[in-house]
Design brief:
The protein is an alpha+beta fold and 427 residues long. The chain contains 15 helices and 16 strands. It binds one RNA strand of 76 nucleotides through helix 3, strand 6, strand 10, strand 11 and helix 11.
Length: 427
RNA sequence: GUGGAUGUAGCUCAGUUGGCAGAGCACUGGACUGUGGCUCCGGUUGUCGCGGGUUCGAGUCCCGUCAUUCACCCCA
């Protein structure tokens, strides 16, 4: 019985890691250019934190948490990032040090759902949180930043959905109104939706079931029930987005399964089939009540989270770039040790270098160099050692020159700095 | 959590009414005693997911199980 990775948790192998690192670099650069600083919080938190922030009756808290019991502690692997960051913000009294905190995070999250394309039990999220700015300007700025980032990454078919849930008062009123509208139509709803009528009728709005969609048509919109303050905020967001030239759709049916959201709610989807039956690349919104709920002062907040796996699936596949590596191919016993010395010298000069230690014919060594995607191959045997030279091959150019041993590093550096010939090396 | 599909070499997949386990790619050796990507010739690679059943005989049929995947659900 071979050991496997835990269901829904995947190894990221070296062949794929380049795409991950490239995406992570874009995320960090985007956030840092916009004034966000990284925060790293624990992967494990007290269950109580998620119950209080995400909501006791949510799917995530009820069914999807990986729970750890240790002595008298009840812990959980974090199912999302916002709660932990908010906890850290309160616990370290960041609010007392600066009026506005702009934070970002990047790391693995855990939810025990049935795995599927674009949905895993361990998955990576990157997100930001802004504390202390009541908006709506920062709401719009954040959405605009994300739309531009995804476009620049090359994600096609973006849809930007924006909605407002208003404050607690609006939300309660809307629940009642929606319940009153749907209850007479209970017979037309799917069984699943019917069960939600009492505990969370808003979720029926984004059901994919055609039956539910039909029943929901003509339902009152939450946007009609916003208080004047909520309405002014939402208009501020949409006006700023328009002024920024960010395309968006007002989507009164947009709802999220986390209880903490207030006012602005947004989601960026791709309509392509790349991410399977999931369609959200990122989602977020305002959660003005959470900091206080967690024992901090009354500080408003907004944030979002992006699924790295989903963005990678939605991204165009790129050819791996030919690398600037050197392969050192020794022929014979004497050359073997010398190859190690040469590789060390090259690395000392900042040139990625690998010396062969397995031996074999020159033909197989050259194949090995090709297989690594190396740009240069250094060949040395008894002949070269006797003459104090090394054979320096430019694999891409299919050319070779004899180079005095002492000039090797300098000549290799020159070749690597020059562009590979047209036609390029084989991938 | 519910329903469907699929599990055969490192990868992609064939495998007929049940009758010797296959191909391409990859890897490797040679043609070319020390010159790579193309070509040609050869070679290595298997718990047919796992367990049971039917049968003279099971990759093939039946039952169970696990995994993957698709849809629902959920969400990033």
């Amino acid at each position: 019985m071979t050991l496997r990775a835990v269901k829904g948790m995947n190894d990221i192998l070296p062949d794929e890691i380049g795409r991950w690192q490239a995406l992570e670099a874009v995320l960090r650069r985007t956030f840092e250019l916009a004034g966000y600083r990284e925060i790293r919080t624990p992967v494990v938190e007290p269950i109580e934190l998620f119950v209080r922030s995400i909501g006791e009756a949510t799917e995530i808290v009820e069914k999807q948490m990986f729970v750890l019991k240790r002595e008298d502690e009840s812990l959980a692997l974090r199912p999302e990032g916002t709660a932990g960051v908010a906890r850290a913000y309160v616990a370290s009294t960041l609010y007392a040090r600066e009026p506005v905190s702009r934070l970002y995070y990047l790391g693995p999250m855990f939810r025990a759902e049935r795995p599927q394309r674009g949905r895993y039990r361990q998955f990576w999220q990157a997100g930001v949180e802004i504390y202390g700015d009541p908006g709506p300007g920062c709401d719009a700025e954040l959405i605009d930043l994300l739309v531009r980032m995804l476009s620049e990454l090359g994600v096609q078919n973006l849809r930007v959905l924006v909605n407002s849930l208003g404050g607690a008062e609006t939300r309660a009123r809307y629940r009642d109104a929606l319940g009153a509208f749907l209850r007479p139509k209970a017979a037309e709803l799917s069984e699943h939706a019917r069960r939600r009528l009492d505990d969370n009728p808003l979720r029926i709005l984004d059901s994919k079931n055609p039956q539910d969609q039909a029943a929901v048509a003509g339902a009152p919109s939450i946007l009609e029930l916003l208080t004047p303050e909520d309405r002014a905020h939402f208009e501020g967001v949409t006006q700023a987005l328009t002024a920024l030239g960010t395309p968006f759709e007002v989507s009164p049916g947009l709802v999220r399964g986390l209880d903490y959201y207030t006012r602005t709610l947004f989601e960026i989807q791709t309509s392509g089939a790349e991410i399977g039956s999931q369609n959200a690349l990122l989602g977020g919104g305002r959660y003005d009540a959470m900091v206080k709920e967690l024992g901090g002062p009354d500080v408003p907040a907004i944030g979002f989270a992006l699924g790295l796996e989903r963005v990678l699936l939605a991204l165009p596949q790129t050819e791996p770039a030919a690398n600037a590596r050197c392969f050192v191919a020794p022929l014979g016993e004497r050359a073997r040790v010398e190859a190690l010395v040469i590789a060390r010298e090259l690395r000392g000069a900042g040139i990625p270098a690998e010396a062969d230690t397995r031996g074999g014919s020159l033909k197989s060594l050259l194949r090995r160099a090709d297989g690594l995607g190396a740009r240069l191959c250094l060949v040395l045997g008894d002949d070269e050692i006797g003459r104090g030279i090394v054979m320096l091959k430019d694999l891409a150019a299919r050319a070779q020159i004899e180079v005095p041993r002492a000039e090797l590093v300098a000549r290799a550096r020159e070749l690597l700095a020059s562009a590979p010939p047209a036609g390029g090396p084989a991938a």
